Amino acid sequence: MTEYATVRYLVDDVQAAVDFYTVHLGFQLNTNVAPAFADVTRGPLRLLLSGPTSSGARATPADAAMPGRNRIHLTVDDLDAEIARLRGDGVAFRSDAVSGPGGRQVLLADPAGNLIEIFQPAARA
What we know:
Elements: E1 5-10, H1 14-24, E2 28-33, E3 37-42, E4 45-50, H2 55-58, E5 71-75, H3 79-88, E6 98-100, E7 103-109, E8 115-121
Parallel strand pairs: 1-4, 5-8
Antiparallel strand pairs: 2-3, 3-4, 6-7, 7-8
C-alpha cells in the first residue's frame, strides 16, 4: 500500500475538478463517483474532491463553506515553462509569479476557487 498525504477540497462540480487536476496538473484519477466524490493523486499527495452531496461536504459547517487561504503546493523544475504551458491551456492565475528566499511561486485556482501554489525551489549553492 502506498502512503499518501491526503487533503480534501470541497468543490461545486466534481467532474470539472477531476478534469482540471488530471488535464492541467498531472494528477491521476483513482475513484470517480461524481457528482458526489472523486480522488486523484500526484506523487505522495491524494486529493479528495468532495461535491455538495458527499459526506465530507455535508459535515462542513455553513460558515466554512467558502474556499480558504490554504493551498496545496506543487513543486516544478521550471516555473516559467509551467506558467507558459498552463496559460496556453487557458488556465487563469490568481497572482503574478513572486520570488522569495526559498524560490519562486505563482497561484492559480481550481474551478471551485481552491488555491494551488506552483513552486520552483531556489537553486542551492
